[in-house]
Every structure is written in C-alpha cells, then in structure tokens.
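Structure, all two chains, one model.
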Amino acid sequence: MKKTAIDQLHELAAHLMEKGTLIAPIKEDAGFNFREISDAKNVDLTFHNTIISPKSAFFPQMEDFVRYQTGKNVPEAMPVELNLQPTFLFGVRPCDVKSFQIMDIHFSGTGAADPYWRKRREATTILGYAFDLDAPVQAEEFYRTLGIGAADPEGSDIFMIRKGEDLLLKSITPRGEKLLAQMSPLTEASADEEKYFEDYIIRGRDFKTRFTCVDDKTVAKKLENIFHNSDFWTKVSSACLSCGVCTFVCPNCYCFDICDETLFGRGTRRRVWDACMFTDFTLEASGHNPRTQVFQRLRQKVNHKYSYHVRKYGVISCVGCGRCTRHCPVNIDIYSIVEAALKV
Amino acid sequence: MAISFKQIEEKLKTEAKRLLKAGTVSVVLAYGKGYDENHPMPYVAKNASDVENIVFNEFCTYNMARYLVRYPRGTKIAIAVKAADSRAVIQLVHEEKVFREDLVVMGIPVYGMKNSKTGEEIDSRTTCGLYNPVLYDMLLGEEVHGQPVVSPYDVLAPYEAMDKDERFAFWKKEFDRCIRCYACRKACPMCYCDPCFIDQNKPKWGDKSPQSSGNLMYHLTRFHHLAGRCVDCGECSRACPVNIPLYLFHKKVARECQEMFGQSAGMSIQDKPVLVNFRVDDSDKILE
C-alpha cells in the first residue's frame, strides 16, 4: 500500500498525465464533474460526488461514428477511429464503480459488444475513492439499499481512502498493482495505515444511507403486479416535468439516439444520449406514440431499472447514488416511488 | 412583517378541502411533501383526503401554472399561485391555453422563498421580484407591503456594459455547458408547444448533440419564442442542472418589450398579448 499527502495530489495527477489521459473531478460553475485534465492542479478531491456520473468516461454524451460528405453520386464516408491512450479514471465513488459493472451487461455482456465502450473500458484503469464516512450522510443517497458500501473497493483497480491529510492507495487488481508499483510520487504506507484502510472498508459497510431491506426479485414482482395501476403511476408522476435531467445524470441510463448531423454537405453520424422521459423517445415513424403520457414514461423508467432489468439480467439497474433525486427540478425521488410501490 | 408559512399552509389546506368537497373544482394544484422538509414537490390534490399532504414553506418555488395545460378544457382547477405564477396564469388565459372560468386562483403573497437545491434566496435577481399575486380569487395571507422594491432589470447592468463580442463570448461559454436535458423548457409555463421545434425531424431545426451550434439554435430560438410572453418566474434557471443563467436573456427581452410596447407579460388580465395586439402608435424600433 502507498500514500501521498493530499496537498501533493497535483504531483500524482501530473505523473498519471505523463502516462496517458487523466479523467478526474474538477470544480466547475455548477458543481463538480469528471473531465479530462489539462492542468494537474485542477484535480480536486474535495467533492462529495459529481453532477454527471463518470459513465461519460466510457459512454460520452456524444460519440462520432462516421464522417461523410454528401452531394456527390456516391457519398464519401470515413469511420472515426478511436485513438485511445492509456486512461486513468481518478476518484470514482464506490457506487459509481458498481455502475460500470452493470453497464458492462449492456455494452459487452449480451452477445453484441459495443466496441466504443469496450475499448474505453480496456484502456482505462479505475482509481476508486471511498466516501468520507465522517461527513453527514446525504439525504438523496441510498446505495446501502442496493448492497453497496460507502468504501467498497470491488471494481476499482486501485482504491483510495483519505486519512487526515493523506491519501492512502491500495491496489485491488493485478492491473492496479502494476500501476501502483510504477507511481514514483508515492511513499510506502505504514502497517497502522494498512489497518486503518481495512477497517475503513468495514466501517463503510455500516455507513447508513437510506435503506429498505428487500430483495431484487420482490421489488421486480411487485412492480410487475402494479403495472396497470394507473392511479398509482399518475399520482407519483403528477409533479414530473418529463425533462431528461434524471437520465442524463444517472450512471446506469444508457439509451442513445443515432443521428446524422449535416451542414453544407459535410456531416457526422453520431450517437447522442437520449432519454425515455422525452416525448419523442418512443415516437414511431407512423406518428403513433405508445407513451404519450408522463406517467407512462416515468413508469417505464422505474420499471426498467427495478423490474425489467431484474427479470432479464438478475440485477437492479440502479446504484443509489442519488443523482436523479438531487438534480430533479421538482424533487422526484425514485427511492420514495419504489418504497411507495412496495406498499400498494 | 414576517411571512407565516404555516398560516398560509393551513389556509391552503382549508380552501383546497372546501373547494374539493363542494365540487367547485376537481383538481387542486399546490405543493406537497417531498423526500424531506427542505424538498417539497409540486402536488396535485384530487380529493379531500389528498389535502393532508399539502405543504407550504419557503422552498415551494414551483410555478404550478406549468401544469395547467395538462388538463382538458372544462376541468375545474384551483391553483395556488405566487406573484410570478399568477402572471403565468394570466398569460396562459391570454393565449387561450386555459380559461378563466375554469380556474379558482388562490393567491399567495410571499417573499423570502429559497431554492431547495442551493438554499439561496430567490429575489428580483432571478425573478420578477414581485411579492403579491397580480390575479387571484382569494388571498391566502396579508398583502405584502414595505418590502424593498427592486427593479428586476438591475441585474442586467454588467451584461449590458459588455460589447457585442464580449456578450457573445459570455453566452457561448454558458451554452457550451448545456447538456440538452430540456429541463428549462419543461419547467417553463409558457413552453407548451407539442412538438417543440427542436424535437422536429422534418424539417430539422437544430442538432440534437450538445455542441455550440445546436445549443445556440435551441436556446436562442426558445428565447425568441418567449419574447413578450416570459413572466420572469425564474423556473428555467432554477431547473437547469448546470446553472445556465437563462433568466438574464429573458429579462433583457422583457425589458425591451416593456420599453417598446409599455407592457409586461401577464400583468393584467385585461391586456392583450403584446405580439397579438397591434396599435397604430406601436414602436417601430424593432424594424430599425
């Protein structure tokens, strides 16, 4: 295990930038976000969590596939190559690390592998970062309900815990071990610090976010049973504006649209995040729209995460990070909806 | 005089219950409990037993007029409105999206409202800064007097001091942050177009991808679609997850409209909408 002083963080960041691309939290006007770092001094670990989830490191909001030119008899088209350097995703909270494993199901685990997701995943080393267990719990979060601890290292290649003015780093995977051994700005941690690290992980499992003790299959079954209870769904969605904030900040939403955007004969075919909360998400070419009502769209979102996903893949597609609740303009809380559904 | 939020809440509950029980209305648009006290939600009460969940506190910033257009004509609706919200109701009546005879307007005179996400006080910097509703059938509290009257346009000064290039650079930087979640248009009581121009495919008016060109197209068009219609409730900016100060542009256009036509959106039920009402002595400045 290694360590560094928090105020020497920029040295660690600069070291990783020499090795490749560093994606880390920085403070922006509206709050923190993961961004590709161009100045090592900008890396800032004083965040609680970011506005947009780190899924954008593997599944950016916009991904160019093909560039083309129109106007000739045969359009010219060139695929856009992904030239990836080794990438370091730095400071990811345990619940968000878990989200990558769930997203892997869709982008590489069901037979049809998405090359963009897969290549980015392969190129990326994840440096997870435990939540601060001494900070007050945030009202929106509920990752404990989904079986995730505040300091779970699983899924990270290297896991980091803050101890006072130091940052402790421990390798979790062989990949992390190799990287950690090469990181020259770090010093060896003491046996006491090793113990602190291990204890912290255990303490993290007792860190109490909102919690409902219920297994995935029971939730899924219950939601299936009340699918046609439109009174319930109308009631819980009555405030919903049907905007896309919840899905865009979500670490587990993966719906996208593919569009051709052309200007003066030059165009790009690209994939852009889409949202099941948008009216035109289900609009068919015929003009028919199977989900015209707000309650149908919110029901779809909740069911996809807590019911269909369990039935198809055996796991809830939510990690309880609380972003959707925190950023919803009208304070809709998916946890409260599921809790209410269980009581119907 | 301090605002008693609890007293307003009680009056809101009493009136909502009375109107629903008497069958005067079938829907009450008010505020309800959220996941904690600091995060109330827009709330729809449809029967007397729903009324218990109604709350009112300083975080009930929502403009409930946004929800009016969801109900078919003829639905009798009681709506709780603060000052700017009442202007939205008037504007929607002007545009014949709702009808005055279908509405019972429950006015809430209030100041010192706070953003539930940031805890910041909401005042004339981001909204029209009025304290008393412009239109109401009943007032759930005492009219507010003696509070400082601040022009909602004062906040524009530093931006108006910029030259054209600086201002363009400012807005470009702001719009570059946009993630195209469309929370602004969805929170806006005046954005009721179905479909919104930006969702149209044929013709396609702007790119879907969150880049400068499409973002600029979306926001500038939306700004202009709201010219003379925006009631300065500030909901678009409050809804924005990346803090784009959309209210600045709306305020600028609203002031131009006030200066040219002597009228602000939704200030009087007797007015005609500025873009509908032609008067011979109208300003020609717009053509210059």
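Residues 294-313 of chain A form the longest helix (20 residues).
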